[in-house]
Design goal:
single chain; 3 strands; 133 residues; alpha+beta; 3-stranded antiparallel sheet; 4 helices
Length: 133
């Protein structure tokens, strides 16, 4: 009797790559423009490691808490942070922040990617708490 080996819908697939690593592919949704699946991959050294990561991601997708990794560099984020979050600060404070952040932080961290997009409401809340006398 033939056994059905197909995974449940949304469970993802796991395979061994030619370079020896294991890869799990999963669908995060559909592109609204062309209707095609948007797929992402997870890599690991062992099948067990990849299976655990895939299980974690599928639970996050099912619960609606999955956040796609951001492709923004730290330099890009700091530029946005200085432009958007420092609007209500004094000119001297902004000048001081730029002097502290720009030369050192960007030279050391140039090109490094952030893992997740920044949570804007939390940042606003933190700055509001800092500005309370």
């Amino acid at each position: 009797m033939k056994r059905n080996k197909k995974n449940a819908q949304g469970a993802g697939t796991i395979r061994k790559r030619s370079d020896g690593r294991w890869e799990a592919r999963f669908t995060i949704g559909f592109d609204p423009v062309n209707g095609k699946q948007k797929q992402k991959s997870i890599y690991g050294k062992t099948q067990k490691e990849v299976r655990e990561k895939l299980a974690q991601v599928t639970v996050e997708i099912d619960e609606g808490t999955y956040i796609e990794p951001c492709q923004m560099t730290l330099e890009e984020w700091m530029t946005i942070w200085l432009a958007e979050y420092m609007g209500d600060k004094k000119w001297s404070t902004i000048k001081h922040y730029k002097a502290q952040v720009m030369p050192c932080g960007f030279l050391m961290m140039r090109g490094k990617k952030k893992k997740k997009p920044p949570p804007k409401p939390a940042e606003e809340f933190r700055f509001q708490q800092m500005s309370v006398p």
